[in-house]
Write a structure and sequence with these properties.
The chain is mostly helical. The protein has helices at 5-11, 13-31, 41-80.
Length: 103
């Protein structure tokens, strides 16, 4: 197969457009002199070795227990309270009506 400049430009046209877009985005970052800050190894090890296990053993189970208890109490309320004993919530009517012919 003979590769010419014309066939190469057809094949790589999409890639060139993507590269140009990435180059423009990178130019914006370089324009103000700011860049992405790196995370030090000690910070990464601290988070992955101490904070993550504490979150997984303390906060995650507490969150799961809270959600299960909330759902359980709502279910108990539905089972044991009669309809007339349940709190009645106000329903507000705005008075706005949609004409079905207009829709």
């Amino acid at each position: 197969r003979v590769t010419t400049l014309a066939t190469m430009s057809k094949e790589t046209n999409c890639d060139l457009a993507g590269m140009e877009k990435r180059r423009q985005l990178h130019a914006v970052v370089e324009q103000d002199g700011k860049g992405m800050t790196g995370v030090s190894t000690s910070t990464f090890l601290l988070l992955s070795g101490i904070v993550l296990p504490i979150w997984a053993t303390v906060f995650l189970p507490l969150t799961i227990f809270y959600q299960l208890a909330k759902h359980g109490f709502q279910r108990l309320e539905q089972l044991f309270l009669r309809k007339q004993d349940r709190p009645q919530y106000c329903k507000l009517d705005s008075g706005y009506r949609v004409d079905e012919k207009a829709v």
